[in-house]
């Protein structure tokens, strides 16, 4: 049997301050070896550890000169992009070249309605002060209407001026000779929509005022009605109303009454038709209609 050794207490050795300092010799050796491995060895073996730095000459050639033309210094994508097609000029509206010449006289009051609801005719209604200045510029704009392109003939327009509702309505007249006037009336309604009538002088609540427009397309032949109207002007025959009152109608015999002319009113006459004469009357003989022969002593 082995004898048990007596217990020996552990011993701790604390190094002196001089012994605890690092060995600068070892540190220098390690740094030298690291320098050799990282710098000298790759150059000797030709090994590339990363991309080469750009050379100063290459950087200078890549940068555009400050005085270069902006067009030549643009990106290549812009230089190779296909050019845009030239803008196509818009076609001129045909209405501008074939717009008719429009002539018309003063409006004639056909009838009116009083505030009490009574209906009056013609001269008994009086006039609407200032209405010509409102209506005539809008009537002249009819030449710009697409539906007026190349159109010749007569267009009778009845304007209903309602001061109660501050509205001007546009209706057709019997003297119209144009075959398809719907587009023209649509343009007239648009022209008079919202027209200000509040400042016009008036005595009654509502008026119906007739305008007869003559459209003559450039180079076009006038319609039969327009030719007849021209014959009235060219005939230069004059007459005077011999009855106490002569009724002027928009068509012979059963046409609508458009004027009542007192005795002594001068008229210009055209060729008679079944006892009725086409006449021009009013200021500058600008208004037209038909008068029975007996009213002028024929």
Alpha-carbon Rg, integer = 52 Å
Instruction: State the end-to-end distance.
Output: 180 Å
Specify the helix fraction band.
10-25%
Strand-residue fraction?
15-25%
The description of the largest β-sheet is: 6 strands, antiparallel
E-strand count: 12
- SSE order in H/E notation? HHHHEEEHEEHEHEEEEEE
Find the structural class using helix and strand composition.
alpha+beta
Q: Mean pLDDT, nearest integer?
A: 76
Shape: rod-shaped
Count, helices: 7
Assembly state (oligomeric): single chain
Uncertain ranges? 58-63, 73-79, 89-96, 221-235
Folded structure, characterized:
This protein is of the alpha+beta class and 298 residues long. Among the domains are: 98-216, no CATH class; 224-296, SH3 type barrels (Roll), CATH 2.30.30.40. 24% of the residues lie in helices and 24% in strands. The strands form 3 sheets. Strands 1, 2, 3, 4, 5 and 6 form a 6-stranded antiparallel β-sheet that branches. Strand 11 and strand 12 form a beta hairpin. The longest helix is centred in the first third of the chain and has 22 residues, at 24-45. The chain is rod-shaped, with a radius of gyration of 52 Å. Residues 58-63, 73-79, 89-96 and 221-235 have low confidence and may be disordered.
Write the layout of secondary structure elements.
Layout: H1 24-45, H2 56-62, H3 76-80, H4 94-97, E1 101-104, E2 108-113, E3 119-121, H5 131-140, E4 153-162, E5 167-172, H6 182-192, E6 206-216, H7 224-235, E7 237-240, E8 245-249, E9 257-262, E10 266-269, E11 276-281, E12 287-292
């Amino acid at each position: 049997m082995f004898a048990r050794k007596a217990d020996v207490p552990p011993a701790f050795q604390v190094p002196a301050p001089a012994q605890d300092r690092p060995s600068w010799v070892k540190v220098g050796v390690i740094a030298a070896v690291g320098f050799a491995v990282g710098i000298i060895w790759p150059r000797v073996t030709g090994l590339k550890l990363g991309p080469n730095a750009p050379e100063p000459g290459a950087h200078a050639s890549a940068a555009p000169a400050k005085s270069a033309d902006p067009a030549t210094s643009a990106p290549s994508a812009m230089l190779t992009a296909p050019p845009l097609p030239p803008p196509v000029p818009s076609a001129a509206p045909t209405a501008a070249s074939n717009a008719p010449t429009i002539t018309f006289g003063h409006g004639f009051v056909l009838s009116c309605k009083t505030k009490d609801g009574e209906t009056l005719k013609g001269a008994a209604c009086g006039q609407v002060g200032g209405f010509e200045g409102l209506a005539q510029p809008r009537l002249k704009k009819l030449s710009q209407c697409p539906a007026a392109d190349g159109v010749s003939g007569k267009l009778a327009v009845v304007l209903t001026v309602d001061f109660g509702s501050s509205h001007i309505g546009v209706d057709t007249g019997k003297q119209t000779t144009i075959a398809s006037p719907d587009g023209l009336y649509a343009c007239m309604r648009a022209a008079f929509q919202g027209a200000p009538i509040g400042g016009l002088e008036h005595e009654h609540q509502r008026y119906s005022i007739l305008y007869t427009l003559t459209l003559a397309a450039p180079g076009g032949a006038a319609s039969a009605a327009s030719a007849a109207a021209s014959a009235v002007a060219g005939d230069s025959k004059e007459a005077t109303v011999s009855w106490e009152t002569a009724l002027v109608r928009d068509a012979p015999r059963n046409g609508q009454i458009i004027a009542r002319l007192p005795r002594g009113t001068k008229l210009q006459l055209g060729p008679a038709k079944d006892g009725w004469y086409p006449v021009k009357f009013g200021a500058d003989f600008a208004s037209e209609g038909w008068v029975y022969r007996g009213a002028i002593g024929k």
